[in-house]
Amino acid sequence: MAIEAVIFDFGGVLTSSPFEAFTRFETERGLPADIIRRTNAANHLENAWAKFERAEVDIETFDALFAAESLALGAEVRGRDVLPLLQGDLRPEMVEALKRIKAQFKTGCITNNLPANAIGSMTGRSLYIAEVMVLFDHVIESAKIGLRKPDPRIYQMMVETLKVDPSNCVYLDDLGVNLKPARQMGMTTIKVTSGAQAIAELETATGLKLG
């Protein structure tokens, strides 16, 4: 198989996972374990999170919907309180790997993100994210196009824009549900659990030395 393109998710792949921040928040507040992740996972195509990532609801509506959905699962968590927990730290080793990949292959990023300004002032963070985003040949953001992973159309848009065959692509994500459509299209998929693990699997898939 000749690799033509490597396509990345952003949060949890190029940044550390927000799950660690979720766990800290729940522990500090005495909330049931994994209440945030369970709320995100329940009815995951049409829940508050999905609607917000497709920019179908504003922040006030998201806040109230998330509160109601989490309460139904055992404890109320305000949507607004979850948003600051999303800001993971960049993984420098993954950014370096991306730079080396870009020198050889086409690169893309498909990110389920939130409407601009949803997390308040992001000025400093936006600057360093912008430095990473320019490394991609094409970026698709859910909140800008009204589609989000795992909708197969978002992956199709990427391969059409990059003009590549899915069977010649590698796709990385930290969520299995988002890897499934890519795998069904014929992509080689990597489920990211850490930077070191992702880089090792990327080296195998691409034949490049990335570390």
Automatic annotation (TrEMBL):
Gene3D superfamilies listed in its UniProt record: HAD superfamily/HAD-like, Putative phosphatase, domain 2
UniProt KW keywords: Acetylation, Hydrolase
Pfam families named in the record: Hydrolase
InterPro entries: ACAD10-like, HAD-like_sf, HAD-SF_hydro_IA, HAD-SF_ppase_IA/epoxid_hydro_N, HAD_sf, PGP-like_dom2
One MF term in the entry's GO annotations: hydrolase activity
NCBIfam families: HAD-1A3-hyp, HAD-SF-IA-v3
Protein name per its UniProtKB record: Hydrolase of the HAD superfamily
Organism expressing this protein natively: Bradyrhizobium yuanmingense
